Each structure stands twice: as structure tokens, then as C-alpha cells.
Amino acid sequence: MEKKRALITGVTGMVGSHMVDFLLENTDWDIWGACRWRSPLDNLRHLMGRINARDRLFLTDFELRDTISMIRMVEEVKPDYVFHLAAQSYPKTSFTAPLDTLDTNIMGTARLLEALRPLGDGPVIHVCASSEVFGRVPAEKLPIDEECTFHPASPYAISKVGTDLVGRYYAEAYGMRVMTTRMFTHTGPRRGDVFAESTFAKQIAMIEAGIIPPVVKTGNLKSMRTWADVRDAVRAYYLLVTKDPQPGAYYNIGGTFSCTVEDMLHHLLSLSTVKDIRVETDPGRVRPIDADLQVPNTAKFRAHTGWEPVIAFEKTMADLLEYWRDAIRSGRVYPNR
């Protein structure tokens, strides 16, 4: 029997690269990673000897804003499973580049699904939306379930509302096996330094190395987040597409540990070898509007798949800080944030 093929868009990102790691270890599938030709491969450097070497891992070029590249990619791969993880994923950037964000995320998803549509109900497709679709939720509405009203608080969040609805539309209108997730905050090693917890960890690691003064610059610290480890997240995505997949279904997924961004920062500071680090607010790091309460109800997904997060918040943060320490030791870091 021919081996199954998985297609991962955004394979060079944090989630995409961890998805590769999980599938290589836990399946016998051939894995095709789709990325832009200019995307850095840092997150896949531990797999460089396997890429395009007839060892289950292949890279192919694509561009979310180029329909032809999508069609060629799908014709080349003919996937059985699709994990659509590629996006302009940073909310703050979306305030300065709203049109690019909307086109990349909404139309990019539509282009991909159009390219996949000739395959009918063959591939099982995961479209990754975001918990940001819920935006500013009043405390009395917590925890947030799947039927909570969308109230997006950034162009990025608006783009993910569109992504969510496009995915569900293709399932309903064309009978495609598309499922949508609204993943709450997830982090860990390889997290981009544009995100709060990762830029804090990076700054702490640079302080420890004597690269910058002992000051961590921050944005809004009062938002409440529920934290999950990226390694738990990719296991959830695998179960989504393999455990009785339900076309058109949509799920909230997230961790079980909630705290403010400020509490998260203080935990990272407690792990540092430098004990006199100051904290300063940088107005340039503050969003014009923020989704300030993000606490999920994940009962629907857990009941369907049996998934539970198993990696503790403390390990996630320790591993994230160690990731940046290692990056600095190996010379892979520029002190830009």
C-alpha cells in the first residue's frame, strides 16, 4: 500500500516545524513542507540531512498570494492530509499592514482550498484559525466556547475570522473534509521573537550573555492568557485529522494554565541567572487594541479526540528560555528585539 502523504504549509514556522517532528516520529507518512523560497530554514536545521533526500521529508515552494504556485504544489504532492498553518501570524504587524494580512490569510486560504477542490473529499484538511477571532470577551462570558460571538480586535483577528469562515464554507458547499481550529496561546522552542513571551525570553538570554543592559522592554502586561505547549498543539492537530474527522467541524483548542502576561514574565525572570533585571514599558510594543481575556472551553475537542495537554507551563517556559540561550551561544541571534 502506498504511504500516506501529509502537506504542511508554513513548515518553517514554529508550529510547522514541530508538526514535522511529530509526524516523523509517530507516523510512516511522507511529509511535504510548503514554504516561500525566501523563508529561512533555521527551524528545520536539525533535519537538513533528510530534506529532499528520499527520507520522507520534502520541501516545495509556494506562495499564499500566488494561485498558480498553489495549483502546482497540490498537483505535485497529491496530499492525503493537509495542515494549513501558513499565515501572517503577528497581530501587531497587522495594524501597519492590514491589507497584506487580510489578503495573505483570507485569500491565501481560499486559494489553497480552490487548488485542493479538484481532489474532492479525498484529503483531510485542517485550517488553522485563531482564538483571536473572539477578541474582547467580557469576563462573564468565560470560558470561551465555540459559539462565542466573534469580536476581533485587530486586522489579524479579522483575517482569521475570514479564514475560519472560508474553511467551513468549503466543507459545506463542496463536501470537502475541512475542519477549523481556534488555537489559544501556544508557545515553546522556536517561537518567533515578535511574540511577547519569546521576546521576553530572548531579552533575558541576551542580558545573561552581556549583550544588552539588564532591562526587559514590554508592551501590555495585563492581558490574561491560557498557555499551551506547541508540542501538545501539534499532537492535537494530528488527532484532529486522524480520529474520526468531521467535515465542517470547528474546535477550540488550548491549555489549562491561565495567567497574565505579567505573571508569565515574572516566571521567566525567576529562571534567569541574573537577578536584578528591570522591566520597562515600551509604547512601541503596545497594540492599539488588545484581546485582554483569552480563556478557552475545550470540552468539545477533548470529548471528540481524547486529547489533553500534558506539558506543564513551567517546562514550556524553561525550554523557551533555553532555546534562546542556545541560539545566542551558537551565534544565531541578532539583538533586534
Automatic annotation (TrEMBL):
It catalyses: GDP-alpha-D-mannose = GDP-4-dehydro-alpha-D-rhamnose + H2O. The keyword Lyase applies. SUPFAM superfamilies: NAD(P)-binding Rossmann-fold domains. CDD domains: GDP_MD_SDR_e. Residues 7-319 form the NAD(P)-binding domain. Pfam families: GDP_Man_Dehyd. Its cofactor is NADP(+). One of its GO terms (molecular function) is GDP-mannose 4,6-dehydratase activity. Keywords: Lyase, Nodulation. Catalyzes the conversion of GDP-D-mannose to GDP-4-dehydro-6-deoxy-D-mannose. This is GDP-mannose 4 6-dehydratase. It comes from Paramagnetospirillum magnetotacticum MS-1.
